[in-house]
From TrEMBL:
Residues 11-110 form the Regulator of ribonuclease activity B domain. This is Regulator of ribonuclease activity B. It comes from Acinetobacter kookii. It holds the Pfam family RraB. It comes from the Bacteria.
Length: 126
């Protein structure tokens, strides 16, 4: 498969989406994409979480005790087709919100949905 740089631009997001496509992930199917915002204090994270809930976002909030310093992480779950321009738009929005509440946007990720034909046939037969 040849990379279409209009669909998969040569930047971090384009590279991740291209790798997903190369790995056989069907990018025309909706995925639950997780966007993260990190905060130094629980109070900042709670204020941001409340704002996101009022914006009807599905979120989780937890304390990351494994980080070098204590951090509070908000994960925003967006069910969507992983399309480059939509991801960029959401990153810009979450970056603005993070800044507004004293946090830092920390990226996105999602589970890959890759089925080998043989695996699919076995799963269907089960």
């Amino acid at each position: 498969m040849t990379r279409d740089f209009d669909q998969f631009p040569d930047d971090e997001n384009g590279n991740v989406l291209w790798q997903m496509a190369e790995d056989g992930d069907d990018l025309t199917e909706a995925h639950e994409i997780e966007f993260s915002i990190a905060f130094q204090t629980e109070e900042q994270a709670q204020k941001c979480a409340l704002y996101l809930l009022k914006e009807e976002q599905k979120i989780s909030l937890f304390e990351d005790e494994e980080a070098d310093t204590v951090e509070w992480i908000i994960t925003i779950y967006v069910y969507m087709e992983p399309e480059y321009s939509d991801i960029v738009d959401l990153e810009e929005w979450f970056t603005k919100i993070a800044t507004q509440y004293g946090g830092e946007y920390d990226g996105w990720g999602c589970m890959a949905y890759v089925y080998e034909d043989e695996d699919w046939e076995n799963e269907v037969k089960s």
